[in-house]
Amino acid sequence: MISLQKQEVKREGFGTSLGVIAATLGSAVGLGNIWKFPYMTGENGGAAFIFVYLISTFLVGLPVMISEFIIGRRANRAAVGSFKKLAPGRPWYFTGIAGMVSAILIMAFYTTVAGWVFAYAFKAITGSLNVTDAESAKQAFNSLAGSVWTPLIWQWLVLALASTIIIGGVRGGIERITKTLLPILFVLLLVCDIRALTLSGASEGLKFLFQPDFSKITGVTVLMALGLSFFKLSVGVGTMTTYGSYIGKNESLPGTAVKVMFSDIIVSILAGIAIFPAVFSFGLEPESGPPLLFFTIPMVFNAMPLGQVFLALFFILTSIATIGAMLSLLEVPVSYLHEEKNWNRKTATAASALVIAALGSTATLSSSVLADFKLFDKSMFDLMDFMSSNILMPAAGIFIALFAGYKLGPRVVYDEATNRGRLANRFFVSIYLFIVRFIAPLAIIIVLLSGLGIIKL
Ligand code: PHE
User: Fold this and answer.
1) Which of 186, 214, 223, 345 sits a CA distance of 20 to 30 A from 46?
2) Which pLDDT band holds residue 3 (cuts at 50, 70, 90)?
3) pLDDT at residue 5 greater than cutoff 60
């Protein structure tokens, strides 16, 4: 008789190829494209920064994503469990734990910004976002972000929404929702792009996006670009390992990763096109940092024909974009508690949401009562962002690449990445292997050390 205990518990996974793309792309696309990418590009000199960002995406972000998929699908476990299963009794699983810590830190400040975005969408729809000049735009933002309860309540609402979907499970929650939302997001983004490109003076903005000035590049810029490519592709936090474990045996892992990467870059560029021409045609500075989106978009959109409608569309689209990313971040601790600690999904979600709400409140209050509270010279909001994107994610990235390249090694990697030889991608897989074994870990270490000022290049 077969012992029932020895049988693996059947895990839920994504149902279709389209579902795999929707969920993974839904995770990648988010505030990273519409909020972070534009303001970082604005602060760091435009096209030259984008160029460095693209290189780090090809050489580091993509290979790490493929590695995470391989690790997750091979182990058929969530992030921490995957390392435990593939390297039993060894400390590799700390990579998974570091990832989970980043996922929680990111989710803490992500829900702050998502809360602002939902609040702006609500204001735009109800017509109460009447901003006409730079002063009133700043005032509108500060009166939201600078107050205590309103942004907290929006943050908790957003978190409750993500939690409700997560409780619905991998297929009924994550896959179903991302499949519905992504097409809407694309259409809305294209509509906003057409509006932006038909503004007079749009060409200044396009120049800023596409004409590089390499004198703007420094060690710090490169570290920021690398951090952005981790953040953008949702790698180094266990998200893609966990999602990899939900991907069916017949899907192409490198193929999925490449599709997600290209689509994600396209969304970032489209978001840049929606924002910068407008910024320039209204004579604004692109360097206003994190609030760029909230200062410029309402002012710019309000001043053009049908502005109210486009303003509402823009913030609805951004709200939609935050959802897939938040689902994937929340899934990291939830799947850990569910699989490793045997908690049911509901309790695991509630517990994770509570921790995130507590930590996240400190990020939200960084714009009001905690504005003067600094750790390592940074506000709680900035600290969580910096710690995750610029330290923990790249550091985890090094170990993920080494794990795939050496611990799993070529045989397992070819097996997973070619679906046991059924895919005609051996050449591509050898390049990938070369990169994760020799290039990505070294590149990350150098960038990390020089960005932190430990070595001078
Ligand atoms: N990729 C998401 C974005 O760009 C953020 C994210 C980071 C999601 C890490 C999951 C994990 O908005």
Assistant:
1) 186
2) very low
3) no
Q: Transcribe 185-235 into DSSP letters.
A: HHHHHHHHHHHHHTSTTHHHHHHHHHS--GGG--HHHHHHHHHHHHHHTT-
Q: Give the CA dihedral 52, 58, 64, 68, nearest 10 degrees.
A: 130
Is there a domain that residue 206 lies in? yes
pTM: 0.93
- Spatial CA neighbour of 355 closest among 345, 344, 347: 347
26 lines ligand 1 (CB under 6 A): no
Residue 7 clears pLDDT 50, i.e. is over it: no
| Atom of ligand 1 at shortest range from CA of 239 | 11
What is the average pLDDT across 236-246? 96
Q: How confident is the model at residue 9 (pLDDT cuts 50, 70, 90)?
A: low
The alpha carbon torsion through 84, 234, 162, 21 (nearest 10 deg) reads -100
Domain count of the fold of the chain: 1
Q: Show the CA angle centred on residue 320, arms to residues 370 and 150, nearest 5°.
A: 30
> Residue 203: which pLDDT band, with cuts at 50, 70 and 90?
confident
- 244 assigned to some structural domain: yes
Give the ligand 1 atom nearest the CA of 322.
Answer: 12
Residue 421: exposed, middle, or buried by beta-carbon count in 10 A (0-12, 13-18, 19+)?
exposed
Q: Tell me the average pLDDT across 313-328.
A: 93
State the average pLDDT for the chain.
91
Structural domain contains residue 4: no
Residue 18, pLDDT above cutoff 50: yes
**27, 230, 240: residue to mutate for ligand 1 pocket, most atoms within 8 A of CB:** 27
CB-based contact 138:295 (threshold 8 Å): yes
- Residue 221 in domain: yes
Give the closest residue (by CA) to ligand 1 atom 6: 234
Q: To test ligand 1's pocket by mutation, which of 35, 36, 232 has the most ligand atoms within 8 angstroms of CB?
A: 232
Tell me the residue range of the domain where 200 lies: 76-451
- The rounded Å distance from CA 25 to ligand 1 centre is 10
CATH number of the domain that residue 304 is part of: 1.20.1740
Provide the 8-state DSSP code for 456: -
**pLDDT of 113 over the 50 cut:** yes
